[in-house]
Specification:
Elements lengths: L8 E8 L21 E8 L3 H17 L7 H8 L10
Length: about 90
């Protein structure tokens, strides 16, 4: 008898600018107009992918209708452009 191995799903996201070098391979970190931070995040789920997707849609809807977040320009832009990152609905 073979046991079912749980499926693992990983989601990566980044924020900031990953451009560290300019022309001639000159380091540009800290120069005017260059992002001062770069963030990389990963979350790993050991559950049904349809459940994860549904929770993400619920979170997106909650953020886009929240009174506090509505005043943030990047959230306004996402809502006006049709929403957040999307993938096929379950």
């Amino acid at each position: 008898m073979q046991l079912e191995k749980p499926e693992n799903y990983r989601f990566l996201d980044e924020a900031g600018d990953a451009t560290f070098y300019g022309r001639g391979r000159k380091p540009i970190v800290g120069e005017q107009g260059v992002s001062k931070c770069f963030i990389l995040g990963m979350v790993k789920f050991k559950t049904n992918l349809a459940e994860v997707r549904q929770k993400i849609y619920e979170l997106q809807n909650q953020v886009s209708t929240d009174r506090y977040f509505k005043s943030i320009p990047s959230i306004q832009k996402k809502v006006q452009s049709g929403g957040f990152y999307s993938f096929p609905r379950p």
